[in-house]
Amino acid sequence: MQVSNQDEPTPVQTGTSNLKGLIILLVVIALLVTTSAVTSRSSTARANDDYVQLNLDATLKARNLFLRQQVKAPSSSDKVMSAEIIGDLSKIANGTRSRRAIRQLAIVQHWLLDPRWSQTLLMLRTARPDKSDQEVISAFSIERELSWWGLVLACHPQSQDIATFRTLFARNQLGWFEHLALESAYRNGSMQNEANRESQLAGASSIRLVLFQWVALLSMVAGFGLLIMLYFYLDWRKKNPDVVLKSPWNNILSVNHPVPLSDEKAALLYSMFLSYLVSFAAIRGIGTFVLMPIVTALPPEMAKPIGAVITGIASLLPPIVPFIIFIRNRKEVDLKAADFGWHIKEFWANAACGIMGYLCMLPLLIVASVVSNLLFRNLLSPSNPAITVFAGSRETYLIALIVIQAAILAPLVEETMFRGVFFNSISRRYGQIGALVLSSAVFSVLHPQLPLGFLGLFTIGAVFTQLFRFKNSLVPGIIAHALNNGLIFVYLALVTGQ
């Protein structure tokens, strides 16, 4: 543990400046929350969130039913699940009039021997174009597509017919549902080997999803065990502070609390965080009220790539102003990047600590989720826009951009600003626990998943802050943050079959 050899610094902030900083913080947070509310509480946004969640639920049920049909004879419970799947997908198709939703519904109906599948496909004539459609949809192209559907699913197609059909599927990118349709097409064409291959691919994809779910469950159990072990270890460490463990665990579990910063350094960090919030609020406001109406008015083939570029640039801009403030003022107060956790000392031990911290967080998130559902189940809460866009996207570049933002940029920026900068700047004024609570609360309210997601986000922020306190490094929090965000998108990709 490091010991500061500086004399007790003379406070440079007056009560008035502290009050001004607090007022700025509250005003900016209020603006951000209001902006999020405007964009996420609209009826269109709420309906889109509901349809995305409903689609994920229906896809999960369909994949579970598919696996059950592979290993046992049909039962009455299968009929109930089939009706639920068709009902959910029907709500989406009728509510969105999306071509993708209509195709998915027709495929599932054909798979489950529902004769209404051909009538469902006729909805394509009145469907609205998907934002990601890469060609102009004409009446001729719709009738041509309908003829192909009828040929491969109701007639006896030849191999060249199915090859053309596969090309159509590649353009529509229906994910896991594509295997169901191709299996039916090959069986209708008496190509049993090809049909069995598609069935095996659909089953293998579903098995990977089940394995991921089991790994997640085992990780939660491991995290619970680690929490218990960590409790007894810290209790033992208090009683035996001088004992050194002769193993890699000594570096991983060694405590290296942050050195208290001088008032001058804390003031500079606080100004950096306020500039980050102001930049974030300004960019969010410009994007919501200026750029979004312009982008949505563009043709679909232009809207998504332009929107993706704007989103990518917007995610990089907020940290620029605090970085400039740091570069220009750091020498005056002798502030180093290591003072707020940016160093690579004991990197691998800190990375291992981050993985352990992530596992310990999982059972706490389950508790937070249960409590949130009890408290806020009757209140509308939007999903994270990144999850909504990812689940409904078919473009590789857009999916890659979302993953980079969520699993790389967000951990780097948010851990730096909320744990390294904000927590450090207020820990001397409010104490370690008070700063942990305040920084975690601010971290929570700046996310759009409120109120249902508040406790979960607060738990995440508190665990990441505790990792920073434990190791005086941002590496554990960045690793845990990246795991949390990245594995969410891995799960979504497995569910949707992207």
Give a description of the structure:
The chain is mainly α and 498 residues long. It has two domains: 45-208; 244-496, no CATH class. It contains 18 helices and no strands. It is globular, with a radius of gyration of 27 Å. The two termini are 47 Å apart.
Secondary-structure map:
Layout: H1 15-40, H2 43-71, H3 76-96, H4 99-111, H5 117-121, H6 139-154, H7 159-172, H8 177-188, H9 192-239, H10 249-253, H11 263-296, H12 300-316, H13 320-333, H14 347-376, H15 385-391, H16 396-445, H17 454-471, H18 475-496
List keywords for this structure.
2 domains, mainly alpha, 498 residues, disordered N terminus
Helix-strand makeup class: mainly alpha
How are helices and strands ordered from N to C? HHHHHHHHHHHHHHHHHH
Low-confidence stretches: 1-15
Distance between the termini: 47 Å
Q: Measured on Cα atoms, how large is the radius of gyration?
A: 27 Å
Mean pLDDT: 84
Q: How many strands in all? A: 0
> Roughly what percent helix?
over 70%
The count of helical stretches stands at 18
Strand content: under 5%
- Largest sheet: number of strands, sense, barrel closure: none
What is the approximate shape?
Answer: globular
* Count of distinct structural domains: 2
